[in-house]
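In the design runs reported in the main text, the only information available to the sequence generator was the tokenized backbone. The following block is the verbatim input for one such run; it is reproduced so that readers can re-run the procedure and compare outputs position by position.
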């Protein structure tokens, strides 16, 4: 491919990726007797698909999301009480265009972070901007950016994205400066951009995270106003896996005996 006669021209037009399927499409055009316009359309479709994959890979790398935690890999059978229809409806990402929030709460290990990440991936597939961080890390990054003078750039990414994913809300205590930053983020994004929050605290305990009653009331009022509030119950995936592994090991030992 490095010596293909069309390579210099395709490079000049920034279409060198077409070489990946050019010979294949040329053979297809001969076998199926495609018209020149049909042949060209196939090549352009290949190029658009390649660029789409590149954009998705770039956005994924910038977002902080995991490519492995998808809806397809989520075990709905492990959380039978979860409204699967609601989750698939949220996966259409229409809530983002309506600037609505999603709040997941439940005990550790029931799949809150996995589901949140999966919904964020659906947003990325739709060319939406996603920024995902655990709450404590996001606030630490803001403090570090403030010290280096890059606070405006970091804050712009947080405030201007289409979906902000705040994972593990309330898992760790927050410093006074972090509480103020969190309130301002929630306030600035109110009715301007969607927030997806996961927490292992019950909704009625969320005010304790802020420590300040006034800030807590103002922040939670904005956060819950246009929100889908989902409580996920059940046993931890990790506990289920340990139990299954223990049973499997016990069976193996019996068979060996």
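Verbatim output:
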């Amino acid at each position: 491919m490095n010596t293909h006669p069309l390579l210099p021209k395709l490079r000049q037009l920034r279409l060198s990726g077409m070489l990946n399927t050019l010979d294949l499409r040329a053979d297809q055009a001969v076998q199926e007797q495609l018209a020149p316009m049909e042949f060209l359309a196939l090549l352009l479709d290949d190029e658009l698909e390649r660029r789409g994959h590149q954009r998705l890979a770039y956005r994924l790398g910038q977002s902080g999301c995991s490519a492995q935690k998808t809806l397809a890999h989520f075990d709905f059978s492990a959380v039978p009480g979860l409204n699967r229809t609601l989750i698939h409806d949220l996966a259409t990402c229409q809530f983002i265009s309506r600037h609505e929030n999603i709040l997941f709460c439940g005990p550790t290990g029931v799949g809150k972070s996995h589901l949140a990440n999966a919904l964020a991936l659906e947003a990325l597939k739709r060319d939406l901007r996603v920024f995902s961080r655990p709450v404590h890390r996001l606030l630490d990054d803001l403090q570090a950016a403030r010290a280096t003078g890059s606070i405006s750039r970091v804050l712009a990414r947080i405030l201007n994205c289409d979906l902000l994913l705040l994972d593990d809300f309330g898992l760790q205590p927050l410093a006074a400066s972090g509480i103020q930053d969190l309130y301002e983020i929630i306030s600035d994004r109110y009715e301007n951009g969607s927030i997806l929050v996961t927490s292992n605290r019950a909704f009625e305990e969320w005010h304790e995270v802020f420590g300040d009653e006034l800030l807590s009331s103002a922040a939670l009022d904005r956060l819950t106003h246009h929100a889908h509030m989902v409580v996920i119950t059940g046993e931890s995936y990790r506990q289920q896996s340990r139990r299954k592994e223990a049973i499997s090991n016990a069976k193996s030992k019996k068979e060996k005996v």
